[in-house]
Amino acid sequence: MTQSSEARNARHKRAMQRKKAHVDERIANATIDKGLIVVLTGNGKGKSSSAFGMLARSVGHGLRCGVVQFIKGQWECGEQLLFQDHPLVSFHVMNTGFTWETQDREADIAAAESTWQQAEKLLQDNAVNVVLLDELTYMLTYGYLDASRVLDCLRNRPEGQHVIITGRNASQALMELADTVSEVQDTKHAFNAGIKVQPGIDY
Ligand code: ATP
Ligand code: MG
């Protein structure tokens, strides 16, 4: 080994030791154990797929999960096909299509209300460890659900229960209540280049 590569390796080792000390200290300081609210918002692709990634992790750990999807897409999504009959997952899907397809505000409000009742049951159930409320934010931005009722229900859920919420334009109040918020940025999307939706990647 040349002298300069020896010096470089030694510098690297010192830098890694400092980094490890810093990371170890931060891990030692994180002592609180609690149920989290995770909000995934923004215009980029990756919100629901990240949420279902956490659901897969949770199921892997044997946790009991509930899913409520507030917008039913045109295609049967892979996450539903995978999880709907899973013994650890209770899966509910709103029984109408996209709002620009139904074009009926009264029917949308009724569907939002009955779908929210499924969510409420999960958010009151001590035995449910993880609740995923996919595309919930649209019900709030369209005013289909009362925001304060939703926030109260989230606040009063069983201690230790995790909630994952997805959808664009999450409200300030929801983001303040959350413990973790990620905004996915839209840098580029294949659909805008005329590419068809792809099973596995898009649904
Ligand atoms: P995904 O389910 O892929 O994680 P998402 O939950 O972040 O996406 P949604 O707004 O729920 O995004 O849209 C779901 C569908 O729309 C997916 O098929 C996704 O690929 C597509 N999509 C998401 N973001 C964009 C975008 N910025 N431009 C075009 N299509 C998008
Ligand atoms: Mg989504």
Automatic annotation (TrEMBL):
Keyword match RNA-binding: no
InterPro entries documented for this protein: CblAdoTrfase_CobA (IPR003724), P-loop_NTPase (IPR027417)
A Gene Ontology term for the protein's cellular component: cytoplasm
Principal location listed in the UniProt entry: cytoplasm
GO molecular function: ATP binding; corrinoid adenosyltransferase activity
Top EC category: transferase
UniProt catalytic activity: 2 cob(II)alamin + reduced [electron-transfer flavoprotein] + 2 ATP = 2 adenosylcob(III)alamin + 2 triphosphate + oxidized [electron-transfer flavoprotein] + 3 H(+); 2 cob(II)yrinate a,c diamide + reduced [electron-transfer flavoprotein] + 2 ATP = 2 adenosylcob(III)yrinate a,c-diamide + 2 triphosphate + oxidized [electron-transfer flavoprotein] + 3 H(+)
Domain of life of the source: Bacteria
Assigned keywords, A-Z: ATP-binding, Cobalamin biosynthesis, Cytoplasm, Nucleotide-binding, Porphyrin biosynthesis, Transferase
One GO BP annotation of this record: porphyrin-containing compound biosynthetic process
Subcellular localization: Cytoplasm
Functional description taken from the UniProt entry: Required for both de novo synthesis of the corrin ring for the assimilation of exogenous corrinoids. Participates in the adenosylation of a variety of incomplete and complete corrinoids.
Family recorded in the similarity comment: Belongs to the Cob(I)alamin adenosyltransferase family.
Protein name: Corrinoid adenosyltransferase
Species assigned in the record: Pseudohongiella nitratireducens
